[in-house]
Design a protein that fits this description.
- This protein folds into 2 domains: 293 residues, Divalent-metal-dependent TIM barrel enzymes (TIM Barrel, Alpha-Beta Barrel), CATH 3.20.20.150; 31 residues, no CATH class.
- By secondary structure, the protein is α/β, with parallel strands linked by helices.
- 43% of the residues lie in helices and 14% in strands.
- The strands form 2 sheets. An 8-stranded parallel barrel has the order 1-2-3-4-6-8-9-10, surrounded by 5 helices.
Length: 328
Amino acid sequence: MKRKYSVFIGNVGTCFDRHCPKYSDKEYSYSELFDRVASIDLVTGVDLVTEKDFYDNIDAVRKGLARTKLKVASIVVNLFGQPLYKQGSFSSVDPKARKQALEDTLRTKDIAEEFGCEFITIWPGQDGWDYHFQADYAQERTWFADGVRAACEYKPKIGVALEYKIREPRAHNYINTVGNTILTVKEVNRPNCGIALDIGHSFFSYENSAESVALIHKWGGNLMHMHMNDNYSSSDDDLMVGTVHTIEFLEFIYWIRKTGYNGWFTMDQFPYREDGRDAIDESTRWFDALETVMDNANMDEIADVLKKKDAVLSSKLMRKLLFPAYRK
């Protein structure tokens, strides 16, 4: 099945973490990053983040897009990497921070409109709490929903996708699980509000991502976007797609087909020690290979197995999907 693959443009560059400020001496310009993305066979889009130097380099972004013909899948609002938002963005107790969060989000929508982008993404990594008796859990969530609603009402043709994560950088994030995020979308109550499902965040939340897709569809959570990576479920490792949760990815693909999602699949990972361009290329090939497995699967047979709720039949089905030449 033909899919639309994108990548966060910085992920084909070099990455660092809190333990090592530089894993490579190589630094890439925006022009070089666009060239590296364009060299990946299956990728036709980029995701952008309004980091501190983004607007200073906006002309370079424009030129890179025009030269490579890459599309912009989504733009993430930087509501997590500024000191002003250390106690939250839309949920902050500081009205100045909430006001600035809205202004930053509306500005991102302006850029999204220029780039022909259908939606922006909000990852509220600083919106949450660390200590008991530190937060008003109800009021701060109300402020958050109010802010997102105001963002939705500005240029309503451009959607607002909420990306959830169980924790990090806060010890507890407000937008943390699929159910919580669906409830927030319902509270915002605007047709252009939806969910960006990061499959690694889903694993990290001890969710089955296939079930998460099914729940978003069942309860009208409006699945807008997908971020693809992998991890061992104990942290947000951002590894190459399919290298850990191989079978889970197959069931996930079954459910995105069953529920009709046909949007972007953005490779979102941090290849600290690998070449970023090559790691992203490998992720797209992994996902494409898993799609091919499902292309060759009998969807009616899978549906029949689900109806029986028989674990042995489920096991046989998984084995058949992975090893079609093995007939016993």
